[in-house]
Amino acid sequence: TMVISKETRGVIIALHKNGLTGKSIAARKIAPQSKIYCIIKNFKERGSIVAKKAPGRPRKTSKHQDRLLKVFQLRDRATSSAELAQEWQQAGVSASARTVRARPGLKEGSKEATSLQKNIRDRLILCKRYRGKVIFSDESPFRLFGTSGKQLVRRRQVERYHQSRLMPTVKHPETIHVWGCFSAKGVGSLTVLPKNTAMNKKWYQNVLREQLLPTVPEQ
Predict the structure, then answer these.
(1) Cα–Cα–Cα angle for 75, 90, 63, nearest 5°?
(2) Domain ranges in the chain?
(3) Alpha-carbon gap, residue 85 to 102, rounded angstroms
(4) 142 pairs with which residues across the strands?
(5) Bridge-partner residues for 202, per DSSP?
(6) Taking Cα atoms as reference points, which of 74, 69, 70, 71 lies closest to residue 96?
(7) Burial (Cβ within 10 Å: 0-12, 13-18, ≥19) of residue 84
(8) What's the gap between Cα 177 and its chain centre?
(9) N-term to C-term CA, the chain
(10) GO molecular function: any one (predicted)?
(11) Neighbouring residues of 82: CB distance < 8 A, sequence distance ≥ 6
């Protein structure tokens, strides 16, 4: 936002008192016409040339800087907020990733568990109690094409079904299941099941027998 000095405001009001219109004052190029009208209106309402203090926190970026950010966003829709902030800073704008997320763009509300702090505390107590005595194991599926979750893209409102904004999908993507284990002493064995093979009872028993049990002495 452009700041008009007190001296310039005084000149504008003096010219206004002499009968000049806002358009005539703007022709002298001492300030933008929109600002001149605001200064005159403020003087008529408050009888002062001092600018009215804006409520709330001052905006960190100007409209021009916001337009620059939009150019960065449209250049690569998959760019993260941190990367956009870094690119913005290189252009001379002092802003963080949080400021980027506050500007117009596609974003999804975050979800937070109400018992998050309690879960963290309880898990920490559990880990300290059984540290060095427990082997943790788990298995997880991985799609070989696409993603199983949501993928965000930066786009305009009218570009919802634009070809370059759509995420490619397949009806039955190939999936692999991976099993692994670890303890306080380090990681254990890693097992990759054949493609499109689910971790059923038979496979799980085989993994425990062939992979987990030989790992126990090492842990």
Answers:
(1) 65
(2) 6-46, 63-102, 131-218
(3) 12
(4) 176
(5) none
(6) 69
(7) buried
(8) 30
(9) 63
(10) nucleic acid binding
(11) 97
CATH of domain 131-218: 3.30.420.10
Residue 115: Cβ-neighbour burial (10 angstroms; 0-12, 13-18, 19+): exposed
Residuewise pLDDT in 10s, the chain (219 residues): 567 888 888 888 899 888 888 888 888 888 888 888 888 888 888 888 877 776 777 778 888 888 888 888 888 777 888 888 888 888 888 888 888 888 876 444 445 555 678 888 888 888 788 777 788 888 888 887 766 666 777 777 777 777 777 777 777 778 888 999 888 888 888 888 888 788 888 888 988 888 888 877 765
Tokens 């879960």: give the residue. Answer: 119
Helix or strand or coil: residue 44? Answer: helix
Smallest CA-to-CA distance from 22 within 5, 2, 44 is with: 44
Amino acid at position 164, single letter = S
Token pair belonging to 54:
């804006």
3-state SS, one letter per residue, for 96-160 = CHHHHHHCCCCCCCCCCCCCHHHHHHHHHHHHHHCCCCCCEEEEEEEECCCCCCCCCCCCCHHHC
Within 10 angstroms of residue 180's Cβ, the number of other Cβ atoms is 17
